[in-house]
Amino acid sequence: MYRTLLVPLDGSDFSARALVVAVDLARRTGATVHLALVNDPSSYIPFVPGEVAIPVYNADIVRERRDADQAALDRHVAELNTNGVRAVGVLLEGTVIESLLEYGQQVASELTIMTTHGRGGFARLRLGSVTTAYLSRATTPVLLVRGGGSDAPPTLPTGMLLCALDGSPFGERILAHASVFAAACEMTMELFSVNTPHAVSLAPFGTEALLADPVAIEEEERFRASYLTRLLEGCPSGSISHEVTDMAVGQAILDEAARIDAGAIALVTHGRSGISRFVLGSVADELIRHAALPMLVYRPDDPK
């Protein structure tokens, strides 16, 4: 079970919507919720226009922003403590991602809970795509919860946790974290894998085509079914598995989530080249943009 949860805030009501999920999870596990807000003057100080824009440090603006951020933190901490949840609020100084990562390591955070818009890619917070940058460097799981599109606050997921796997040992590393999360939320796990037909070269035409070989597809389906059955042996009791053959991996995952009425989706990410690159290629970006479900994302610090 979790002992330490981290919730990054930016002072907005949007980012604070993640607190609802954090509170529910903390009540179930007895974890302490750490609220972190980074005061980075470079994100709001004015610039003098010209051939080269020059930042102008304004002590009054910086002080006002810092006081407002501290007041927001104090208000949230007081509210959580009043509701019986142990909460700690810290106002960090520096750049957002580095400060959050350093603080998370300092308090040994086991799960970060962040709010995402789920449109145009990733969440946009005060410094732009903070969620993207955080996912690309965090080495502990991150739970992305929907913050927009509904007046109803996000809730802790229930039901089935859909674990998307690609057949690689790297992809399997989501399972340990998914098991902890599923236990904390009293969810059941489904291991899910999508088999796609192989592409073959049509040289000398310089192109590729998909080989719809029924025999090859049947062999791959048997392999995936056996693979998932083997993984089930190390999963919590009640876990199930399912595999399909589909050309569109992302849509197949969304369809499966709808079929089983999943409460959340879990998968790993490489988090390299500045943009999160998932084991399933661009699938995770598609899921984050289109899935209305919470996403449990993990980037192992060792990509092997």
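That was protein one. Protein two is written in the same sequence-then-structure order:
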Amino acid sequence: MISIVTARDNVVDCYLDEGQVFAGGNALNVAVFARRAGARTAYAGTVGTDDAGALILSSLAREGVSTDYVQVRPGSTAYCVIGHNNGDRVFQDVGLGVSRACFEGGLLSPASGFDAVHLSESSSLEELAADLSAVSRLSFDFSTNRDAGLLRMVAPHCFLASFSGGDLPAADGIERARQATALGATWALVTRGAAGAVLLGTDRSYQVAAAETTLVDTLGAGDTFIGTLLVGLLEGRTPPEAMTTAAEASALTCRRLGAFGNGGPLTAMPGRHSTTPRRR
């Protein structure tokens, strides 16, 4: 069985209008959706000693994601307030809490026991890219970060480099992926929302259309695609097959509120004590 560990980026996604919070964050979501795709997964990161931290731990446990590398520290868990614009998620406010605390013991030892390790630009661990790729295959989500220095630092070490290109002309997104493979990435993915996705290898590109869905919330759809695709590529599936499966999984994520799991009450939002949500 393919094994993947993801690191650091965790939050509780807070929907004030709906009065619910969900476990989330790119690294957390990728661990969940890679597990659903058939991999053995673990999450390594830091949560607080609050209801939000407990929600993250219980949500991971229900999905079968190992929490052996989760460290609980005094303080608040990270949070993100989510709004919507025609179904598309909008990040309104963020609190990092203890999520950026130093990970005791480091990540190299845990990563060495897995087939792949996944980070996002929100993990702020890009300085470990070379070391992590020496002990495991590295997946890195650049999201909408277009900093050339970050690309040069990380892409040479990537098995899978992922980019969110829904806000870019198609040619610009593909050029970003080409830069990544030219720097040494084995695969480069550009997700484009309703326009589908493109995957570039060293000598060929593949495209997949977005699967049909009923749009409720796009939060986590890109993470779903990355986690599912990563498992498919590691298992040796053909790129078209792996991308089709990823597109179908992403479509399912779009049909619900929150990336995965059961929502908790708004009182689990760090620093919030009122149980009365705002209504549209």
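The helical segments are 26-36, 51-63, 108-111, 129-135, 148-154, 170-183, 221-234, 239-253. Keep this in mind for the problem set.
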